[in-house]
Structure formats: C-alpha cells, structure tokens
Amino acid sequence: MAELHGNKFGTHRVIEPKGVLPQPAVRVDNDMSKEYDNEILCDVITLNVDSASFTQIKDEAQGDVEKIKSTMFSIVDKFGKHKNPVTGSGGMFIGVVKRIGSALKGKIDLKEGDRIASLVSLSLTPLRIDEIKKVHVNTDQVDIKGQAILFESAIWAKLPTDMDDKLALAVLDVAGAPAQTATLVKPGMRVLIVGASGKSGLLCSYVAKKYAGVTGQVIGTASSESGAAFLKEVPFLDATFRASATDAVAMYEKTAELTDGEMVDLVISCVSRPDCEMGSILPCKDGGTVYFFSMATSFTKAALGAEGVGMDVTMLIGNGYTKDHAKISLEYLRESDYIKKIYQKRYVD
Amino acid sequence: MAELHGNKFGTHRVIEPKGVLPQPAVRVDNDMSKEYDNEILCDVITLNVDSASFTQIKDEAQGDVEKIKSTMFSIVDKFGKHKNPVTGSGGMFIGVVKRIGSALKGKIDLKEGDRIASLVSLSLTPLRIDEIKKVHVNTDQVDIKGQAILFESAIWAKLPTDMDDKLALAVLDVAGAPAQTATLVKPGMRVLIVGASGKSGLLCSYVAKKYAGVTGQVIGTASSESGAAFLKEVPFLDATFRASATDAVAMYEKTAELTDGEMVDLVISCVSRPDCEMGSILPCKDGGTVYFFSMATSFTKAALGAEGVGMDVTMLIGNGYTKDHAKISLEYLRESDYIKKIYQKRYVD
C-alpha cells in the first residue's frame, strides 16, 4: 500500500469532530494498517497512565483489576486513544519503534528497533490494545500488547541504557514538573510542595531544595499518615506537615505556623485529586506563584478562588513539556541516590 | 439580635459541603437576617453576570428572556449564590452598602450608603434575588431587587463619580485582564489578542499597544464577520484577522502569515466559549506566554494540548484579581476616548 501524507499535528487521524486537533478530539483513527509518511508506529510494551486518570479508574473499579482492564479496553474502543473521559487526561507509553514514515526517516535521531518513551499524552495518541498483560495497581503502569502512533509534532525520548525502563518511565512521566520547578525556584525562596511524597512531588522537592539552597525553606505536605511519616525522613525537606490539600484553612494555618506568618513564595501542587486549588493558593504570599502540575486542577476553581480571597498570585498551568525536560529530569534522578532508591522500590521491584 | 462573628473567608456561610471555602462550596447560606460582625450587607442594583456564564444561560434559553430569568432564580434558589453549575463562574454586582458589621466599621474606607461594585465573584457571594427587573441580553447585565453579602476578605471598589455606573461596571467586570496585560507586555513584543472585539479583548488590545509601543505588533482576532469588520477600525490594532478560536489550525496559519512565521510572544485569550485552548496556544512562539482570561478555559485541554504539540509555552490562569486592578483599569478607560465611546454605546445607552 502506498504511503499517505499526514498533517504535522495529526489532524488526519481525527474522526470526530472534524477539523480539531487530536487531543480535544472525541475519537481518533487507530487503524494501524494505514501508513502515513510522517508517522512513527510503535509496538507498545507498557502504558503509564496519568495519575489523575488512573486514580479515577481505580477508585471507580474499587481496586478490582478485571474492572480496571475492562474500563481501559472500553476507553480505547470508544475513542481510539486512552483519554479518560472523566479526567480528560492520558499518560504515556514505552515501546519499540516498528516503522518510521519515509518523510521522517533519516531526518530524526531515531531508527526502527529503538526503545523509546512517548512524551506526548496518551490523550491524543492513536492506540490499539490487543491484550492487557498486567496491571500494576500501585504504580499506574499497565503492561500490554498493542500499537501506538506518534505524529510528526510529537516528542519522545530514547530510553536511557544506564537504568531500568520502569525507573526511567516513572521519571519521564512527570518530567515537566521538576524541569519547570528548576526554572521557578531562586536562592532563598520559601517553597511549599503540596503532595510531596508522590512521584512528582518528591522529585520537585529535591529540585526545589537544590535551587533554594541553604537560605531557602522547602516544606512538604502529605495527606495520609504514612505519607507524612515518610516525609519526615526525606533529607532535602526543611519542614513537613500532614494535611489534606482539600482543607484550605488547615493548609493556610500550618504554613503560617512554619513560616512565622510569612507564607511561601512558591507553591507546587502535585496532588492528583480534585478540589485542591484553594489549599494551594491560600499558603502563597501576595505576589507569589502557584504552579499547578496536577491534571485534576480546575481552571475556574483556581481563577475564581484566588479572586474570591483577594489574592494577587501568579497561577501557572503545568505544561507537560519544557525544552529538554526528559534529559533534565533523568539527570536529577541520577544525582540523587536517595530518590533512585525510593523510586526503584516503588516503581521497579 | 446580637451580631455573630464570622470567618474572614466566609466559611461560616457554607452549608454544603462543610469546611470548604464559599467558592468551591455547593451551597451557601443567603439568609440576610443573620448579622455577622465582619460582613458587609448590600442592596443590589445590577448583576453583571460573567460572560462565559451568561453566554451559556442565554444559549440554553435560546435568547428567551423569561427562561433566562427562571434559570437565574433557580441557580440562586439552589445554591444561595449565582454560581452557574455548568461554567462554575459567577460575575459581580453593583449596589448600595446597607450595613457594615461592627468589627469592620470605621476600619475600612467605606460607609453605609456608599455605592460600590463587588470585585469578588458572584460564585462565592451569598445572594438573594427578590425581583428581576430587566435582563440586558446584549450586555450580560441584569437589574434586580435583592441583597448580597461581602466577606471580610472580599474586595470591592467605590463607584467613580465621573462616569456612568454601567460604564464603570463594564470595566470593573474585566479589570483583572487589562491590569495583568500591562504587567506582561514589554516594548517591541508581538501580541495576539484572541477575541479582541469583546469587552475584555478591546481593553487588553489598548493596553497591549500602549506597552508594546511603536516597535511592537498587536494583532486582534474576531470570529464573526461583524466583529472582524469592527476590528479593522480599531486605532490601536496593528493587524486583524477573522477566525474562530476553536479552529486552531486557522489561528496558527493566519498568525504565521501576519508575523512572517515569527509567531507571537504573548497571546491573551479573551474568548468566552469552550475549546479555544489550542487556538490560543498554537500561535505562540516557543518560550512565549499564553494568558487565559476566559472562564471557559479547560485546565487539562491547555496542559495536555501544549504538551501534545511539543510547545514550551508558559500558560497563566487569569486571576480576576491583581493589586489595584480596579483603579488601573478605570484609568485606562479614562485615557481612551475611543473605548469610552464604544463602551458607552454598548453597555450604557
């Protein structure tokens, strides 16, 4: 069959509604027998479902693995991609390059047989699942047999050879957050990491302390007892407290206590549950910045919430992509033996 | 009846769910016979419904004024505040101060009888509507008889005496956008105003040109034919084009054409309809900034959309509040005879 030519952004795969981009699209074409000259076809090994999405699926299935599987099959059947209709979010995959379209071949630093991680969201990636081999309920990772397509504008990273795939995947999944934390934190800043014990929160805490330095103060929070106990041992946190991010008043009061009423310059919100906007806004000082990394964040709740309490804070939508974020984040992992050990235990062993 | 003492942020008025702040709350107590010592009770004259909210209500009622009225009554009946359950947004009001609680009296620059505009969202403001006198379907303004409460942390502005109330209200409704545009635009920047013919878009265009200066380029867009024709006459726009913000590819191509492929440093999104995220992201250059002012913006669509096309752009959630935004925005209106005339015709006459 002759190759077809596709749109750079992938609009040629959009079935419904016509004319929109693949991410907002309801349904995309996941027929892998159609070959486009500017697509990359991959055999998928593991899906790393976005944390907000996986939490929602897992909660709805009450942890039942068979129900999780059937939900995932039904999402891909309906939409041609793994875009959770409740959270709107996707995740990423690791796989092996099966075919590179003729218009890209030799022009990009990638060849067939290379092992890569996709760095664009599954919420826009045409995906076919033939078999779900294993659901790792505690790591949001799902081993499958299937195929996925990367468009010309997509981003990806070759898997590093000096670490386990699942370790790399865990870092790459949240790579935008530590890379953007690095650009936001300046020496001497007070930084609050909301949800510091999780995958992105722990890496952000490390980066925040690295850049805030000895005169800075990095405070981590967790909502569970076990999370809070874990945080007490984290070497790069200056202070920690236990509070649910949905309890905005507690977040405010505990932060006030630990900062002598100064509050913090920067809040990084890494909690993958809804209604955590105000718990991230109130601890920030006037003129400070709140960075929302969680896909469970509501735009209006943040915008109107800040206005509602008369707070002049800059609020950033966590862009999953920052230039060189994969390279940067993998390097942070290499730097910290502590995080490497924790991640290895959580996401690999 | 003895005065009660209320929480600074208004949590004492939250009925459901308990413990959250008034904005995220489902239902607040709008019983105005309860007197708290740190509340301001106002007789409401006019509601200025948030544009995204009013558009949704109007569209659903197919423009029928009686249906709009019954929707508004039912929202306030159900929630104790005018928080549109679809858009999550509110609006603001103008009214006369009826009672100032004893804990605030004499400590704030306000006295009973003063005419003010609320600068916090109706989505958190306890409101009672006794009568809807007139629905101004083209200006999102609704004249009512009723009462509203401002909490201690609320912000408000005394209505200026040198202009019509409705003119001031129109500006104050969108005051955050021009004030924040002023802080974002630097000389020589290329700025795209998406939805430039609307209330916030026109003011933002003026401010963008003021700060971008002669070496800058300010481009305005409109989706309707009449909007595009209007923009051609706006003296402070360097270029204009007609495209729907939902058509991301058209937005990209037309911006590329007008900027010789350079794209813009800053995009200000003022369109009060859903699915305009990508139409605002694609025209931005790598490393640029996208400022979402519209309450119809989806957090995940923006976050995953930017990642999906591999664009490293800073995305800001439009905070309705910036320090002194009322004062700043009213002054911009006074400066521009052109906008004053347009606003007068649209929102007053």
Short note summarizing the structure:
With 349 residues, chain A is an alpha/beta fold.
Description:
The structure is a homodimer of 349-residue chains. Chain A is of the alpha/beta class and 349 residues long. Chain A is built from 11 helices and 14 strands. In chain A, the strands form 3 sheets. Chain A has a 6-stranded antiparallel beta sheet with strand order 6-7-3-4-5-8, sandwiched between helices. A 6-stranded parallel beta sheet of chain A has the order 11-10-9-12-13-14. A two-stranded antiparallel sheet of chain A has the order 1-2. In chain A, β13, α9 (299-308) and β14 form a beta-alpha-beta unit. The first copy, chain A, is globular, with a radius of gyration of 20 Å. The model of chain A has no long low-confidence stretch (mean pLDDT 94). At the A-B interface, β13, α9 and β14 of A face β13, α9 and β14 of B.
Please outline the helices and strands.
The structure is a homodimer of 349-residue chains.
Chain A (H helix, E strand, L loop, with lengths): L13 E3 L10 E2 L11 E10 L1 H10 L4 H15 L11 E10 L14 E4 L8 E10 L4 E10 L5 E3 L6 H9 L2 H9 L5 E5 L4 H14 L4 E6 L2 H7 L7 E4 L5 H11 L5 E6 L7 H5 L2 E9 L6 H10 L5 E4 L7 H11 L1 H12 L1
Parallel strand pairs in A: 9-10, 9-12, 10-11, 12-13, 13-14
Antiparallel strand pairs in A: 1-2, 3-4, 3-7, 4-5, 5-8, 6-7
